[in-house]
Predict the structure.
Amino acid sequence: MTKPIPSQLDTTILAETFRLLGDPTRLRILFFCLEAPRSVGDIAASLDLSQSLVSHHLRLLRGARLVRGNRQAKQIFYELADQHVSGMLADMAHHVCEEHAEE
Amino acid sequence: MTKPIPSQLDTTILAETFRLLGDPTRLRILFFCLEAPRSVGDIAASLDLSQSLVSHHLRLLRGARLVRGNRQAKQIFYELADQHVSGMLADMAHHVCEEHAEE
DNA sequence: CAAACGTATAAATACGTGTTCATATATCCA
DNA sequence: TGGATATATGAACACGTATTTATACGTTTG
């Protein structure tokens, strides 16, 4: 039940994750993949982004193990990789709505 | 019990918060203030940062209503402004420890 | 009031990074 | 195998931003 301060290293690692979540485009991609696994093309078309841009962002998200891609024929379907992340995103999506009500 | 996708605007707002959390220095400041309200000088000394740098970061955190400062004589003590944020940070601090155990 | 202390602001710089454009890799189909 | 589709990669650029240095503002105490 302690509330220890994370080490500087832990903090840096955690910040790295937050940093990735801190881009609107990436966050939109994550929320879109939160509903269901989505192909790169679907993401690009649905969010009105270039295929290249989506791919670049997915690479970063993959590198941080935030998303996970499954090849299905020509397409690759991406989904949230971690229960932690998807849970947190869902919470955040919930909180962001409440924020508007406050004050 | 729905799991709606946040609007693009909501996502941008949320990303703004994540972006602020995505810097190691700021995150260290937040964790340090999570334990107790801290003066700017205390933050700077304890985390080995310049007073100016701490002040700059606090300004950003204040702007996003993530921290809140109370003047006490010459010093200003900063603490986490929002229950949401402090709760999330505590969770994160918890998760980041678990991560190490995984795999 | 003036000096001292604590904090905030301004300007400048160095660096990272989001985006685009062009091209490469990979998988399927005729 | 060759063409078509889907995804990934590389280079280049524009822009934001974290940090430093110097200075200003505000508050307390002689």
In short: Chain B has a mean pLDDT of 89. DSSP finds five helices and three strands in chain B.
